[in-house]
User: Fold this.
Amino acid sequence: VHPNVSQGCQGGCATCSDYNGCLSCKPRLFFVLERIGMKQIGVCLSSCPSGYYGTRYPDINKCAKCKADCDTCFTRNFCTKCKSGFYLYSGKCLEKCPDGLEANNHTMECTSIVHCETSEWSPWSPCMKKGKTCGFKRGNEVRVKEIIQHPSARGNPCPATTESRKCIVQRKRCQKEGKGKKNREEKRKKSNKDESKETRQESKGRAARRQNREQRESNNKTQPKKRKAPNKEQDLAPVDTAH
Assistant:
């Protein structure tokens, strides 16, 4: 170390020299040596760079190098990301994954082998031929199953998800599309006509009832009130002449 040690340093250094850079760091910063050609310079960082892991001590915090096959690590013996050509497994970088595992080239990790999973067969479809269910005697019916889990690279592949077999149906004629449409149109018109007829009849009935009610009210207003007949028994009662 160059004997010229300074206390007025920059860049997070607590002490430094013109030749070696930082000699110690301010609290909570990590000290790491960076190589520049044949020379190593000390620097102080808030976190360790890629390929290093940090260790904290009472007097100084240091950045130490990961293993050669490790890109980033938590400690020297626990890697979190491997360099190209290696696969991560339980904190270690391996060229080949253990038995029962497979190499995932996307994540560069050793992962469990996943086999294909499918649902049960669906019921057989109606017997059809050329997209129709009538006008033929022999046709085909199909059933399908859905893929629930796709396999990984080394997993068991999925089986066929569609099956077809011959079928026989009772021969029947196909209803012509134009005729069927015409019948539906006639039924709709008839239904509308019946509804209109019922509506007219209901309207006539309501009008007749309203007219009768108005006629009765008019007759009640024009007819004179009958006078009350005198009580003959009261008129013929004997008169008391005792007084």
Observations:
- The first strand starts at residue 5 and ends at 6.
- Residues 177-222 form the longest helix (46 residues).
- DSSP finds two helices and 17 strands in the chain.
- The mean pLDDT is 81.
